[in-house]
Amino acid sequence: MEPTVHLTQEQIDFYHREGYLALPSISTSEELEWMRNAYDRIFAEKAGRDEGNQFDLAGTDDENKTATLPQILNPSKYAPELKEGLFRVNGLHIAKQLLGSYAFAMGDHAIYKPAKYGAETPWHQDEAYWNPMMTYNSFSLWLPLQEASLENGCMWFVPRSHNGEVKPHHCINNDPRIHGLEIDEADTSMAVACPIPAGGCTIHTNRTLHYAGANRSEVPRRAIILGFGTHAVSRQEPRVFYWNDAKQTPREERAKAAATQG
Ligand code: NI
Question: CB neighbours (10 Å) of residue 241?
């Protein structure tokens, strides 16, 4: 399969200068249809829950409590059809244009915002979740499987926020049982909303400050996120992300229990 999306120099420059980019289409309507089916299936089956790979990103994730922001890490493990497709071919091609020819596909995850009550994703930098001992050169490609609008929770970015360091974060509601992070303080007055059609995508660097609104619409908001990057390298100057050290999430407990059971 050959890529169908080739970035212009203007788009490449925009990404590096502003820290994000929106593209109108990297997939097809046929592909989106089977992806939606796979996506709905694995959320309905609670795929990965026992391994700690499906959980509520914005809540305490208790058993029998409705998740307001369900997330699946590594969804293509549970729906292998998601491992291939035009969206991935285009994603990798874009990554090589933005990050260099050594860029490769990293992980994937899926964030689902149920109709009418899907929670907002608070302002954060993705790198705040990661290993503080490493330096990253990467981006997240956010692909909605239906239109992403202001009403259903499209992405927002603070232009040029990728130029600074990773700022202090805390667990949502300051509750260490919650996996999701929120930045302590940020100026979001210049934030830009990026509504895009189904099968379009937004791209943001590992440091770009971003947010997605709640889903107030009548339809679910489904998004798949693909990571791309070059190999992370060890940092000369170590950092401490104390907000992650403080976490004690049910997700982690399930992951540990699954690992010891082999
Ligand atoms: Ni994020």
Answer: 18
Report residue 204: phi and psi, to 5°.
-140, 150
d(CA 238, ligand 1 centre) in Å: 22
256 burial via Cβ count (<10 Å: 0-12, 13-18, 19+) = exposed
Cα–Cα distance between 192 and 190 in angstroms, integer?
Answer: 7
Q: How far, in Å, from the CA of 206 to the mean position of ligand 1?
A: 8
Torsion sign across C-alpha atoms 181, 186, 189, 193? negative
Give the Å distance between the CA of 211 and the centre of ligand 1: 7
Render pLDDT for 147-203 as a digit per residue (tens, 0 to 9).
999 999 999 999 999 999 999 999 999 999 999 999 999 999 999 999 999 999 999
Distance in Å, CA 121 to ligand 1 centroid: 8
pLDDT digit string (tens) for 221-256? Answer: 999 999 999 999 999 998 999 999 989 999 999 999
CB neighbour list of residue 136: distance below 8 Å, 6 or more residues apart: 127, 130, 206, 229, 232
Compute, in angstroms, the gap from residue 126 CA to the centroid of ligand 1: 5
Asked whether the beta carbons of 126 and 80 are under 8 A apart, the reply is no
Q: What is the DSSP string of 91-123?
A: HHHHHHHHH-TT-EEEEEEEEEE-TTTPPPEEE
> From ligand 1's centre to the CA of 220, what distance in Å?
19
Domains of the chain: 9-261 (2.60.120.620)
Report the separation in Å between the CA atom of 125 and the middle of ligand 1, taken as the mean of its atom positions: 6
Q: Do 206 and 127 form a contact (C-beta atoms < 8 A)?
A: yes
